[in-house]
Design brief:
It is built from three helices and no strands. It is mainly α and 88 residues long. 0% of the residues are buried.
Length: 88
């Protein structure tokens, strides 16, 4: 069984409604509810992705952006091999 995770609001009627983009098959399911307090809910809405946080930290520390050909020339940047050696 593959878990499906999503966030939703529980209405006054106490029904849990998955978001429209979540596809669930009809049938029995195990439900575990973690309710956030208002402070946590507000923080999670403002949470930036790990990539955004790392990019911001790198800019603050003056770390230059990664070269656009990093994937193509990984061994050159990581180990000092001549450029293009990864293409072989």
């Amino acid at each position: 069984m593959k878990p499906i995770r999503f966030e939703t609001e529980i209405g006054e009627d106490h029904l849990i409604r998955p978001p429209k983009n979540v596809q669930l098959k009809p049938g029995k399911a195990e439900v575990i509810v973690f309710q956030k307090d208002k402070k946590q809910a507000s923080a999670s809405r403002n949470k930036k992705s790990l990539q955004e946080r790392l990019a911001r930290a790198a800019r603050k520390l003056g770390i230059p952006p990664l070269p656009s050909d990093l994937a193509t020339n990984h061994d050159h940047y990581a180990h000092g091999a001549p450029k293009g050696v990864d293409a072989r």
